[in-house]
Automatic annotation (TrEMBL):
It is an enzyme of class 2 (transferase). It comes from the Bacteria. CDD domains: AdoMet_MTases. One of its GO terms (biological process) is methylation. The keyword Methyltransferase applies. Its EC number is 2.1.1.144. The keyword Transferase applies. Residues 39-126 form the Methyltransferase domain. GO terms for molecular function: trans-aconitate 2-methyltransferase activity. This is Trans-aconitate methyltransferase. Pfam families: Methyltransf_25. The gene is tam_1. Keywords: Methyltransferase, Transferase.
Length: 263
């Protein structure tokens, strides 16, 4: 399968992309000391290094499907093990102590079966920590849908949208509570955060989305269409957000979090 990911583009906003991983990790109890922890969808390793810093004696393994991301991760953090693989088929050789997934599981469907399966891969007392964007109903993604729908030559790219032509919030925490609570011990931590990200200009919003949600679309377009789409996206997104008094743009970004310990 073609590698649609680009570590250089993704890393343009690495600090903003890493902040939720910090917040997720901080909720894991300080008394928890895993021997093995897997970072699923590790990207360029920005979350894997957090796990290594938190648990220096643990075996940390970063897993990603993208060779480009893994090359970047391995060159940046040579003391961490990185492997190529598909999260949907993740099956470690033995049960492990921690699964950490920062902004990766939204790329997979059927969470109803996936999340309990991930819990089953853990030892008793092991921790499953998950963070996912919950912003598919917001302008950053709705503008993508609008442009694809209103330009006949681009409508075929609608099939590249992982959640289709969604116009409402995708994830609801009560659903995940019911999904995880039967196999996890109390307390089960779930919360949602809106990050107000300071962007230099409207172009920066496009650059942000280009690193993640737009990857399947732009990878499928030829250069001419990609350039035209980029121009029109910036035009449309500038109608959705306003310039602050300092000429910067605040981009609200919703994310959901969950930390569950296996019974």
């Amino acid at each position: 399968m073609e590698d649609i990911w680009n570590a250089k583009i993704y890393s343009q906003f690495l600090e903003l992309r890493t902040r939720p991983a910090h917040d997720l990790l901080n909720v894991i109890p300080s008394s928890f000391h895993p021997k093995t922890a897997y970072d699923l969808g590790c990207g360029p390793g920005n979350s894997s290094i957090l796990l290594k810093q938190r648990w220096p004696s643990a075996k940390i393994v970063g897993l990603d499907s993208s060779a480009d991301m893994l090359n970047k991760a391995q060159s940046t953090y040579p003391n961490i093990t990185f492997i190529q693989g598909d999260i949907a088929h993740f099956s470690p050789p033995e049960k492990i102590d921690c699964i950490f997934a920062n902004a990766s599981l939204q790329w997979l469907s059927d969470h109803r079966s996936l999340f309990p399966k991930l819990l089953e891969l853990l030892n008793s007392g092991g921790i499953l920590a998950i963070q996912m964007p919950n912003n598919f109903h917001l302008p950053t993604h709705q503008v993508i849908i609008k442009l694809l729908q209103t330009h006949p030559e681009w409508r075929l790219f609608l099939k590249q949208l992982i959640h289709g032509e969604l116009s409402k919030p995708l994830y609801h925490l009560p659903f995940y509570y019911d999904l995880l609570s039967t196999s996890s011990s109390y307390p089960l931590h779930l919360w949602e955060t809106i990050y107000y990200q300071e962007m230099e200009h409207f172009q920066a919003i496009f650059d942000w989305v280009k690193g993640t949600g737009l990857r399947p679309i732009l990878a499928s377009m030829n250069e001419k269409d990609g350039q035209l789409f980029s121009k029109k996206y910036i035009q449309e997104i500038s109608k959705e957000y306003r310039l602050q008094k300092n000429n910067k743009v605040l981009l609200p970004f919703q994310r959901i979090f969950m930390v569950a310990a296996k019974k």
